[in-house]
Amino acid sequence: MSSPPAGNGSSTPTSSPPAPSSDSRYVALGVGVGIGGALVLVCVGIFVIWYKRRKRRLALAGSLLITQQGPKDDPYGGPREHWQQNAPPPRANAGGMLPKPIPPPGITWNPQISSLGVPNPPPPPSVSSSLRSENSLTQPSSSKTSFTYHELACATDSFSNANLLGEGGFGYVHKGVLPNGKEVAIKQLKVGSGQGEREFQAEVEFINRVHHRHLVSLVGYCISESQRLLVYEFVPNKTLEFHLHGEGQPPLNWATRMKIAVASAKGLAYLHEDCQPKIIHRDIKAANILLDYNFEAKVADFGLARFYTDTDTHISTRVMGTFGYLAPEYALSGKLTDKSDVFSFGVMLLELITGRRPIDKAQFYLDDNIVDWVSFVFLHT
């Protein structure tokens, strides 16, 4: 039997680490809870940002599927050439040739002119005292002129290519000169197009009600068998889109940009605030802002416009407009209000300030639309 190990006769107890105090445990627990909470907040923030961007992209994608404006090969949803781009100025714009217009079938030189088939327009809407000056309003004409097809063919040299201003989903626009020497832009809608017929009726009905120096005015119209033509005042300096994105165009100075923005806002405010019932344009974009040689702006193209009364909370309608300018809530729900125009105007202002297109994957390194790009730049500067 083994003997106990030699020693001094007394046993020495084994030492053990001291137990942590209660304060240390609380500190460790607090640090762990703080780190966990921070991680949860970061995850929630990332999810919210992702969800908002996904929702906006779905809205824009949905609106693109719902409505297609202009030729299918146009990535921006609008016409390849806009409706009142004038003939090249003397310095010559060496752009691509437009397709040759298709002559309308069954042209007769003594067409029968029928009535418009719409109620006589009411007198011009009342305007507030702030807009009654000569600088704000133009004098409304007593009535619009009904032209024969022969008269408009003569004014445009038989709708020759030399007078072609542009082409869109609706048809062709030609420059014309009336017998009294007045220059006009003649918009010829495609034959047999149900959408074109609706836009024709809408333009006559709406534009007859508005008389403002920053809204393009209607001179007259022509209904000849299946032909539908609208005659507008001619605005000679093309569109805001041309001056922002046209190849080889010099950049606009800031004073000119401000002038265009203010004039466009006055025209839109007149539609929303001084017309009774108010008018929602539904297609505010750079291509629908016409400019004269002094860069005075006029809002054009009322083919998609709708009336909106003070008692309406919204109008439920088919989503129409141009991809990139549509308000997300309108694109998602089809509920139209005057705020939809305001959103489109805001996109146009971003385009005017930055010089970038609303939708252009080649220009945006984060997203493919100008609203998300500006939001990202603003948050990270």
Main pleated-sheet profile:
6 strands, mixed
Shape: elongated
Fold-level CATH name of the domain at 65-78 and 237-379? Transferase(Phosphotransferase), domain 1
- Cα-atom radius of gyration: 32 Å
3D architecture notes:
By secondary structure, the protein is α+β, with helices and mostly antiparallel strands. It has a domain of 157 residues: Transferase(Phosphotransferase), domain 1 (Orthogonal Bundle). The chain is built from 8 helices and 12 strands. The chain has a 6-stranded mixed sheet with strand order 1-5-6-4-3-2, sandwiched between helices. Strands 7-10 form a two-stranded antiparallel sheet. A two-stranded antiparallel ribbon has the order 8-9. A hairpin with a 5-residue loop joins strand 8 and strand 9. Helix 5 runs antiparallel to helix 7.
Layout of strands and helices, then pairs:
Elements: H1 22-66, E1 145-146, H2 149-155, E2 164-168, E3 171-177, E4 183-189, H3 194-207, E5 218-224, E6 227-233, H4 240-245, H5 254-274, E7 278-280, E8 289-291, E9 297-299, E10 306-308, E11 315-316, H6 328-333, E12 335-336, H7 338-354, H8 370-379
Parallel strand pairs: 1-5
Antiparallel strand pairs: 2-3, 3-4, 4-6, 5-6, 7-10, 8-9, 11-12
Helix pairs in contact: 5-7
